[in-house]
Amino acid sequence: MARTTLTPVEAVQDSNVSAKEATVGTAIADLVTDGAAVAMEKDDKILLIVKNTVADTDKDVTIKAGAYFRSGIGDLTVTVAQASGEQIIGPLESARFKQTDGKIYIDFAAAMTGYIRAIKLP
Question: Angle at CA 20, nearest 5°, toward 17 and 24?
């Protein structure tokens, strides 16, 4: 199957974006098998807000290294604490994480539950 494409919310300069994943994010349980992707232009900066709702286990989220010149730095793996732990990941840059199809790829630990939200910075 294909990765699920997340549509980033565009942040507006000198304004606000809701951070409530439970009401506006995408359920991670639906993404564990195939992962997620976020479209990214050359100069985009993307933030990910990730919430882990697994009660007794920290879980890893991995942003896959891309296809361009900074991809040699490798994947970025972030551990999100158990029991409603939240992490803000990024800003992620295209030079390190963008794939040849114009997206960044996100993988999740097995049996992870929670929510993810992508935010595109101005």
Answer: 85
84 phi-psi bin (left φ>0, alpha ψ -120 to 50, beta other)? left
Q: Does the residue 48 lie in any domain?
A: yes
Beta sheet of 76-80, edge-to-edge order: 4-6, 36-39, 103-108, 59-63, 76-80
The pTM for the full model equals 0.91
Residue 61 lies in a domain: yes
Q: Please report which helix (H) or strand (E) contains residue 90, including its range.
A: strand 85-93
Q: Which residue type sits at 32? A: V
**pLDDT digit of tens for each residue in the chain (122 aa)?**
699 999 998 888 777 776 665 456 789 999 999 999 999 988 889 999 999 999 999 999 999 999 998 998 999 999 999 988 889 999 999 999 999 999 999 999 999 999 999 999 98
Q: Is residue 94 part of a domain?
A: yes
> Which residue segment(s) compose the domain that 88 sits in?
27-120
Give the total number of structural domains in the chain: 1
Residue 44 lies in a domain: yes
> How far apart are alpha carbons 60 and 71 in whole angstroms?
20
